[in-house]
What we know:
By secondary structure, the chain is an alpha/beta fold. It contains 13 helices and twelve strands. The strands form two sheets. The chain has a six-stranded parallel β-sheet with strand order 2-1-3-4-5-11, with helices on both faces. The protein is elongated, with a radius of gyration of 25 Å.
Amino acid sequence: MRVTIADVARIAGVSKTTVSRVLNTRDEVDHSTRAHVREVIDRLGYVPSSGAVGLARGTSRTVGMLVPSLTWPWMGEVLQGVVDTVEAAGFGLLLFTCNRGTDSVERFTSQVSAGAFDGLLAVEPEDTLAMLAALHRKGLPVVLIDDRGRHPEFPHVTAANREGGAAAARHLLTVGRRRPLVLAGPLRFGCVRDRLDGFEDAYAAAGCPLDPALVIESDFTEADGRETVRRLLSQGRTFDAVFAHNDLAAVGALAALRTAGLRVPDEVAVIGFDDIPMAGLMYPPLTTVQQPMREMGETAARMLLALLAGEELSDQSVVLPTSVVIRQSTAGA
């Protein structure tokens, strides 16, 4: 059975607040009492929770972060930006994932109820936006990272997805590509629709409207990108470029084109979206639209820390610019 702060207080003959003050090295506790409480803590093997450590001062000095999964290719960059910022401010980070669906959400909400953290950063797991909004309305500071185009009622940070899609189109047009295949992400995501709208508008403005048969909803995976390109080629569909809405799908497209004997970029140019680390290691290296993932994490963390300090945010919605990173998958076209 786990030892609690109440157990320490009972055996030491003091209040839980006194135990918390000892844990926080507060000066209100005299030396002998502090030494006695420390002896009980050591004897029981008590490991304090962030909530217990912060009880005396009314805060945990801990930031919570909720993410769908740690397997997303760009999640590490976002996390590093968050960690660098919150640790520099003297805060800890409590990380929650939603790998186990409802069980994960229930565990997360129990930590909210226990006051284990002062504010929350979230890369929204599926079907949790309403819950996050409810937590915000109840007074928990929340900042959303990568809002997927939904623009919630609380502060959020995102990348310029529409502009990124338009920039991808302009680059392909510059290298002479007039008939692109679009491997769109799930169209239920606003960020995907934004990328598609920007790309489509740029091609229409150039007098080259997209062929609807070459706009395919994908699932952001390498396997689906590879299979979609393989299937279209087997059907005799022709295209001179691929715009994949994330780099994993673009990697799959590269593999399918290579298997089919098509030269990249001579016959088909390929551009992705994200600029994950593997993009530059592909053969040929992948041209992509870079999302500033680490900066998104840093920006969201700074916004949350400002809220925790009682400051008013000058802007509830921050949109960070994207940029095209040109590599060999289009550069020789």
